[in-house]
Amino acid sequence: MLNDLKVGFLSAKSSIKRGNKKTLAFIVFVLALIFMNLVFLPSMMGGMTGMFNNFMIYPYGDIVVEPSGDNIYINNADNVLQKVRAIPDVSAATKRLDAGVSIKHKHKVVGASITGLFPTEEYDISQYPYIISEGEFLGDLAQDEIIIGAMLAEGYFGSEIYDNLGEVKPGSFVNVTYNNGVQRTYKVKGIMEGTFELTDLNALVHYEEIKNVYGLDEGKATSVVIRVKDADNSAKVKEKIIAAGVKEQVFTNNEKSDAILRQAMESLDLVNVISKYVSLIVGATLILIIVYINVLNRKKEIGILKAVGISPRSIVISYAFISMFYVSMGILAGLVLYFILMYYFTISPVVFYESIEIIPEIQGELIIQSIFTMLTMSIIAGVLPAWRVSKESILNAIWGR
Amino acid sequence: MDEKTLIKIKNLERYYKTDSIIVKALNGVSFEIQKGEFIAIMGASGSGKTTMLRILGLIDKPTKGEYIINNLNVVDLPEEERTYYRLTQLGYVFQDYALIKEMSAVENISILSLMEGKNKKESIGEAHEALTKVGLGDKDKRVPDELSGGEKQRVAVARAIAKKPKILFADEPCANLDTHTSEQILEVLKELNQKYGQTIVMVTHEPWHTRYVSRLIQLKDGLIVSDKKLRG
Predict the structure, then answer these.
(1) Does residue B83 belong to the interface with chain A, where contact is any CB pair within 8 Å?
(2) How far apart are the CA of A21 and the nearest CA of chain B, in angstroms?
(3) Considering the domain B5-229 in this protein, what is its CATH number?
(4) Complex ipTM tops 0.90
């Protein structure tokens, strides 16, 4: 076997070294495009998924605890908070109350959701305090104040798509009718702009406001939102939370975004998978054609090699080496092209919805998987035609039958 | 078989079947080859001389008959063993050189020693030795396209003799060469035979080539019609 490898390598080396360089460059270029096609689109989609996941931080943090069964509220949210905060991997946790409301400004009325939160705790939980585009975020003692999502206020990104409240500015007054009929008037403290519906169609008030409106006791919450020290570790921390005795439903950010974005992501994944397989089939066919033509052109030589005593195995190995070389060069060139494109799209991201920037995500695992797939494919595409010819009788090969 | 007998052929037959007819290329051929002989096989086109050489070189299989080399019946050897036997015991020169065009002269030859399990240095050494024997020691790095027809055929001879085979088969080695170059090739073969005792079986259709050989076998319609010693 070692002799077969040595001879196969020598034969392949000579073929590559003294073969047609223009043909080699063309093959490598096409293979580079195939490799890039395998990794580029998923990287863009990965960036898109990452962007959506980042948006999920606002409502769900890294982990969210929600009422179990048909319950509207977590009844012992402070107890849950106490257990969660005792876990060393947790960096911050807070409770929130969500409700459905209608908001009126002058003659305009819109339906929205409203979240009651503890403003100072949110600095460590969500990006809410950092996305105030006009005015200020709520203070810890805020009463009768509200933050309005940008899509609810005229003139902001996305507001033209949805019903909005007209010209609402910090200092404007809005009337909020809760779904239990209670009405409150709030002064707009700020406008928050996250360029995503989950934030920008929402309004924020202090936790105490909603608690008072619904006459709830201190321990009630619709969610407990948790941030962890290492976001990649969320699934493990979730297990720890459950192990700590939290009986409510616990979800990681990914589980929540999966549920919300599943359909969109499944469609994107389908496009991704189809594109990947088409690339692979085109790549495999190309390598197969290249090697097959090469093998047919050298059928007589293969017969001669066999006639002088070179084993069929070495001949097959030689073509496997040649094929692997083509593909390795294609992968290298593809990686260079890929990183150039990644760099380009990182400094000039694809803009979505006028202001949402999609920065591609370099996926190491996908790159390794694609390299492995292409190399495996190259061996098969290289070996098959060579194996077929090497099994023919010497005379048939020499006479080119 | 006595000590001097290298090859024994008995009632060798080779038929080719086409859709409607059977062509009898060899029709019961028997002869022996002694060590150190330089034999020419001659005959008109279709006489069976190339078929004979291919069977002798283990490139083709007979339909019937015995073929014994050094007391080993090689007819029924499995394909892998036949390949190994060709590699280690036999040398074959094709009429159209049959060199690998992307390999230099030295690589075309050393690849066989590598296949045999020798290391790179040893293989290159053997290839150089063979190229020197055929007068091409200084053109070892040239690829076939950089060599003349005669030089290519000498490289092909060097490849066939590099492993010091028991028998060297040459299938019309001068077919594509002019007279002067043909003489050079035949001189190389003669020298190998006389200086190194190399057993050679050569197929040719040129009567003047017999000046170089010690025995002439003539075939007609798949049968030996004449087998005579010319010298030695």
Answers:
(1) yes
(2) 13
(3) 3.40.50.300
(4) no
